[in-house]
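Format notes (please read before filing issues)

Several people have asked whether sequences and structure tokens are stored in separate files. They are not. Every record keeps both together, in the order shown below: the sequence lines, then the token lines. Line labels are part of the format and must not be stripped during preprocessing.
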Amino acid sequence: MKEYIEERAIAIANYIIESNATVRQTAKKFGISKSTVHKDVTERLLMINPSLAARARQVLDINKSERHIRGGMATKDKYLRERSHFS
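Then the structure lines:
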């Protein structure tokens, strides 16, 4: 594996852990695709630093389990904003 990919995978994992970031937020921050973030954390990092990979994976699993809640809150906010325009 190329060195820059290893460094990116480690940087991504550290960012996810430190900022409790989602895959989407991480992809935007690093200017890469969501699938690259996912592959870096779940496959590549596992070969480089398994303990760091496990910690990053914990954060991503928590975010995944909560995403339906965030989605519902975003929808609620959207309708409240639209409703306020008509009032």
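For reference, the curators noted about this record: The mean pLDDT is 90. The helical segments are 3-19, 23-30, 34-48, 50-86.
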